[in-house]
Amino acid sequence: MKISVKVRRQASRTSVPTYQTYEVQADPHSNTVLDILHKIQWEQDGSLVFRRNCRNVICGSCGMRINGRSGLACQKLVSEFFGEEFLEQTSGGTHPARNREPEFVPELVVEPMQNLPVIKDLVVDMTKFWQNLSKVDPFVSTASRQISKTEFLQTPAERDKLQAAANCILCGSCYSECNAAAVNDRFVGPHALAKAYRVMADNRDDRTTERIAQYNQSNFVWDCTRCYNCNEVCPVEVQPLDRISQIKQAILADANLPESTPQLHRHTMVELVKQDGWIDESKFGIKVVGNNFKDLKGIASLIPVGFRMILKGKMPYPWQFKPSEGIKEIKSLMTAVLDRRSK
Ligand code: SF4
Ligand code: SF4
Ligand code: FES
Asked: Atom of ligand 2 at shortest distance to CA of 225?
């Protein structure tokens, strides 16, 4: 079957990208996107540049964007991108409506990963990706490794905690789709935070306290916007957002840490909902940005915002926030949830 493949080409770091379209004979139900790129490279255009190594979802080299989503070219079957109607017509079987050429030429669009500079065609410069990874110190601490004269054994339950994060093959797909990385160059990214959880949860590591304090700072867990993209694209079920949430829980449970603004933000939301059944915005800014009148600089920073809100008629005044009608039920639900979490 003939398919159309539109590839983003870029000759060098500084040149302007263009799109080039190839027509390729393919079996969409057995060919991967990587097979198609090989067909183009071997049969039509040897100048097309892309990375690959294992061809088997192991090395993480072939990360790229396919029809607008990052993933591994060696994992994705071409048919995955062509929708129900296409699958219905081409997936074989005895019915005459099946196993026939579709009435349209299906198109794949292949582009390099985002949030990293392009070196050439589909190859990106991963330097920032690796630098961000090193910021979380992604190794079990050397000091712990030197302690034991015998094997440092783990129980199956202790090992299970690390399983999801340990699957990461550092392909970059999550980083490419990360909304926080797109707007904040210093955000370490989902891959780094998944590894951060991996070492933080490892009972052989003796730097847990320092790690939790480090990951509580700017550009680590609290800068994630929880867009969920990393969980959706990860080819090996690392589910980085879930790992980020686990680090956040460890931070919130650590009574020795000085309360940071993100922690105060969460505690205040819970406190206000428990109090009145919703978030009273007239108190929220004072409590979080002004740290309950303890941070005078924070209070001062609210004054221009307050004036703008008054001028636009959007100032939240305390008398507008009466306790919600369902407050009794909300309080009992909140108490039940908080009690359960503290067990
Ligand atoms: S977390 Fe998943 S998507 Fe991100 S680098 Fe690791 S394997 Fe790739
Ligand atoms: S959930 Fe957070 S870390 Fe994951 S892609 Fe979105 S912003 Fe990035
Ligand atoms: S070539 Fe190794 S993961 Fe795709």
From this structure: 7
